[in-house]
Design goal:
108 residues, mainly beta, SH3 type barrels, six-stranded antiparallel beta sheet, 44% strand, WYL domain-containing protein
């Protein structure tokens, strides 16, 4: 099931270039995330995900920053921060990951 409020919040964060703090899949840990794109994951456009870089996971505070994709329907909370970021150059709009369509995407 799509969560339009979360999609809108993530698109706002992307447009503003700010990190978000999210909780995923009923987890108890906060993840600091730099979103790059909100996109359709199926041809039917019934599922939507967000790609970006997870810069911190409170369960693994010393872990490396890693590219991630999250199913937006499994995100339970999103908080926009004021911390700015620049999109990671590893993300490109023409990637096969985005073949079913991009809802919003950072300008690189």
């Amino acid at each position: 099931m799509r969560n339009l409020d979360h999609e809108q919040a993530l698109c706002q964060a992307i447009a503003s270039g700010v990190q978000v703090i999210l909780r995923y899949d009923n987890g108890k840990n906060d993840r600091t995330f730099e979103p790059f794109a909100v996109y359709y994951t199926t041809k039917e456009r019934s599922r939507v995900s967000v790609s970006g870089v997870q810069v911190r996971d409170s369960a693994k505070p010393n872990g490396p920053s890693t590219p991630q994709a999250f199913d937006i329907s499994k995100i339970t909370r999103i908080t926009l921060t004021s911390k700015k970021y620049k999109p990671d150059p590893r993300f490109v709009r023409s990637d096969r990951l985005y073949a079913h369509g991009i809802i919003c995407c950072a300008k690189v």
